[in-house]
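Extended Data, panel c. Modelled sequence:
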Amino acid sequence: MKTFKTILFVALLIFHIATVVIISIGKNDLNFLFDLFKQMDLVQYSAIAGLVLFLVVILLFKQEEKAKSKLIEKHENEVNQIKAKLYDKKESESSPAPKTDSKPEIDEKTSSVDQESDSTKTDDENTHS
């Protein structure tokens, strides 16, 4: 890709130098300008070639810009992942694992379900148990 860009820039440079030289030679010669009108096909093709070179340069710059933005986004994602891993590691080091009691805790939901399932008891028996 770099060799293609180099060739393209050299062609664009030659095009501009040739244009400047041709205009400098014939700027005071009216016959030269009339000769250019006689060779209008050559002038038109060279103008189209210059436009094509210019458009190719613009497309290459756009493509390079997209590639750079994708690379930057990829690197930002990697940095965020590494930051997350570092944060998780610091959190696990700074807060030790909580101690668990040997007594199993009774969940309020399970106790209320147990009371409701025992429908043979009277209300007084349910409240005392």
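The first helix runs from residue 2 to 26. This feature is highlighted in the accompanying rendering.
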